[in-house]
Amino acid sequence: MCGRYAVTSSPEAIRALFRYDDLPNFPPRYNIAPTQPIAIVHLMDGKRRFALVRWGFIPSWVKDPKTVSLMFNARGESVVDKPAFRAAMKRRRCLIPADGFYEWQRLRDRKQPFYVHGRSDTPLAFAGLWETWTGPNGEELETAAIVTTTANETLAPLHDRMPVVVPPEAFDLWLNCADVDAEAAAALIAPADEGVLEAYEVSTAVNRVANDNPALLERAAPAAATEAGPDKPARTRKAKDDGQPTLF
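Below the sequence we write its predicted structure tokens.
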């Protein structure tokens, strides 16, 4: 499931990549967590627009959001058919700007966080779905989920899932719900090409949602190597399980 990601590029750099007309001003975020506001890019009247929504998808037909689990990921293999995401996959696809995301590798006695980012150090675009939920009193809440797929070879040692990274040349294909049906758009749901992403170990400080600063992206000293190799990490004091979910 999804845990945390970061948006550290300037508003100008994000706008240049996604080519929307809006002029939002937002600070860098180093530890974005579910239920927090996130930026999305979607089409409105044929134009790309920037919007802020809540990270955690609520289908429009839900009567009480408290009765459903928080859905911050959508498995790409089932978004075309799954009732929760089917309508959004047809009509409300979006892109989610990011510079990188965190993944926790489960070792024998602890979980080691990694930061995963583009090798080119340019912003990434995660495939997303968004929806508007209307409450009984007419209140509206816009929410979104990140679409995920199987991990590529780069990320497989960390986890078996990863976000769908949409290349710039495919932005229109994913966003254009009027002319591109769900089945055709689903062709973009695939692992990122090898060489697009790289991962490195970071501090466990990212485990706390309250920590949101550039130090989270600093490389941590890798664990001591052992004769048995990476599948048998060096012995450490047994860490308390903090309940941190794996990212994808």
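The chain has four helices and twelve strands.
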